[in-house]
Design brief:
Layout lengths: L1 E8 L3 H15 L6 E8 L5 H11 L4 E4 L5 E2 L3 H9 L5 E8 L14 E5 L8 H4 L3 E3 L6 E3 H8 L10 H9 L6 E11 L20
Parallel strand pairs: 1-2, 1-3, 5-9, 6-7
Antiparallel strand pairs: 3-8, 4-9, 5-6, 5-8
Length: about 210
Amino acid sequence: MLSIQIPTIVSRSHIFKPLLTELKRQSEPFGNKIEILHLLDEKEMPLAEKRRRLYEMSSMPYSVQWDDDDWIHPIGINLIMNALTSNPDCVTYRMISEFDGIPHLRQPGHIHRTDFRRRYKKRDINVHGFDVVHPPCNKNVIRTDIAVKASNMLPANQRFGEDGDFGKEVVKLLKKEIYIDKHIYWYLNLSGEEYSKQRYGLSDEVN
């Protein structure tokens, strides 16, 4: 049913392995209903191409991608698998973030919250208390055929901002969305690498 995919690089093996172990732990009760794939290089391959290849490698009707330096809610896979019984086009949820890559952008004591929804209006951010709203992207569970089609709309050489551009293509193809009212995706930046402001709502360029 579900393909969990991890784009990774050789230099991040120390953070990739714990994530893989956790995903296997959560997936084990579902047996062959879940596959876990990863694609490894040392940054030679543009990220947009790597994500596309992972989608095309999938043998399951649904796919989700987890970045190698992030984490997942302790029962996230169980919640996702329950949502998939409704046969949606995608499953969305929230992401919590701690921005350790650029210290001066951090807000002490504040967990940055991103809400992934298909028809969300940016003007509703303050109403619902979220920092950012973002269309469903690779961090959400998407029908694999939709994900493949959307990923093929992006330039193969794109190295950043691909999640936002991918989301813009995905929303054109969605009809049925299931929302899980939990923080399923945990953006922790465990690699400690700096990132550009385009990522995760620090710049309007992703929207």
